[in-house]
# Entry
Amino acid sequence: MHRRIFLLFVLLISTITAIAQTGQFKDTKDEKMQKRAIEKRIEAIQDSIRSAEAFSALKQLDFVLEANRLSFNGRANAYVTSNTNFISLANNKVVIQVAPFNGGGPNGVGGITLEGRASNIKVKTDKKGNISLTMNAMGTGLSATIDIFLPKNGYMASATVTPNFHSNGVTLFGNLLPTDKSDIFKGRLLF
# Structure
């Protein structure tokens, strides 16, 4: 995995170096087209690296889904700050934080923070290469099933949290990344 990322990085650097050594372009239109092509290549390589990291983090059960959008029971959508709205899993410990409001709330960042132990974790890859993870989360104030979906060659994931004792579920949409690359702010626990 790390070798693939390294090779993509070397390809990126060599492409930029080759273009820089060609000198001046014929006219500004050619220059703009060349710059656009370079930007598209760089973006494609970055997306490929993010996808590989997301896939690896999900398989290793050490990830954070930083949500930039929430959906409550499939009805209302809310665009939120990704560093205060997340689901994380590390060492079989799950943290779910939903903070659709700015400041305040039980956790101090505008929502709730729940923590528990993950169990019955199942990771599956379908025929198309999409990955799904299902797990149960149990803790003080937390009893839920969590379903995460990561499309093939993607890093944007969705996670549906379905409480076991009522129907007030929430779906989080955002970037899935390794825990060590995440920039989240965890609020106070509810209990």
Q: What stands out?
A: Strands lie at 63-72, 76-79, 86-90, 93-98, 112-125, 131-139, 142-150, 156-163, 170-178. The first strand starts at residue 63 and ends at 72. DSSP finds two helices and nine strands in the chain. The chain has a mean pLDDT of 86.
